[in-house]
Design the sequence.
C-alpha cells in the first residue's frame, strides 16, 4: 500500500505535511484517520497506522497475556500511547509532543511508507540506520531466498 521515502520538516506548530502521493490513498483507506504509536523496537522512530490497520494491531497486542513483562511493555508502547490524528484540509497531522520528545524527533524527519503503515524517523536516526550494513552473519534463512 505505502512505499517510499520522503524528507519532511515538521512546522512550528508540530504539524507534519503528509506527501501528496499518499493523501488519496489515506483518504480512501481510512477517511483521513491515522494513529501514532511508539516503535517498540527502535529509538528515533514512531509508527503511523491507518485506523483500520491500527485496530487489527491493537486487538492482537491486547490479546497477549499481561502476565509477561515484555507483553505489558508492548501494550504500553502501542496501545497505551496510541494517539489518533486526522489529516486537516491541507493534508497535515499534528505529531504528539510527548511521542516526539520520547523518540527524539525534532524538525527534520523522514517518512517511510512501509506497506501497511508509515515510519516517522528523526533525520539523524534514519541516517544512522541507513548507514548500517547487514553483515553476512545476520542474514536469515528467509533472506537467503530473496532474489535481489
Sequence:
Amino acid at each position: 500500500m505505502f512505499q517510499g521515502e520522503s524528507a519532511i520538516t515538521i512546522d512550528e506548530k508540530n504539524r507534519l505535511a503528509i506527501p501528496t502521493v499518499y493523501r488519496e490513498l489515506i483518504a480512501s483507506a481510512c477517511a483521513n484517520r491515522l494513529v501514532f504509536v511508539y516503535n517498540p523496537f527502535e529509538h528515533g522512530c514512531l509508527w503511523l497506522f491507518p485506523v483500520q490497520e491500527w485496530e487489527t494491531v491493537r486487538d492482537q497486542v491486547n490479546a497477549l497475556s499481561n502476565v509477561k513483562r515484555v507483553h505489558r511493555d508492548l501494550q504500553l508502547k502501542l496501545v497505551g500511547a496510541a494517539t489518533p490524528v486526522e489529516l486537516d484540509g491541507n493534508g497535515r497531522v499534528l505529531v504528539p509532543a510527548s511521542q516526539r520528545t520520547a523518540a527524539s524527533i525534532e524538525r527534520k524527519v523522514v517518512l517511510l511508507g512501509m506497506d501497511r503503515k508509515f515510519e516517522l524517523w528523526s533525520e539523524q536516526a534514519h541516517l544512522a540506520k541507513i548507514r548500517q550494513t547487514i553483515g553476512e552473519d545476520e542474514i536469515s534463512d528467509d533472506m537467503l531466498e530473496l532474489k535481489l
Notes: Helices lie at 20-30, 51-62, 69-80, 97-102, 123-131, 141-144. The mean pLDDT is 96. The two ends are 21 Å apart (CA to CA).
